[in-house]
Amino acid sequence: MSKTEATLTRKDMKEPDKFQQAATQAASWIASRRRHVAIAGIVAIAILVLLAILAAVQGRRAERAGAAASDLLATMGGEISAVPLPGFPGPFYESEDARQRAIVAAADRVLADHAGSGAAVLAALAKGDASLRLREWDAAKAAYERFLAEAARDDSLRFGALEGLGLAAEGKGDLDGAAAAYERLGREVPAFADRADLERARVLAQAGKVGPAKEILATFAERHGGSPLVGDAAARLARLGGK
Question: Of 79, 150, 192, 218, which alpha carbon lies 20 to 30 A from 7's?
Answer without folding.
Answer: 150
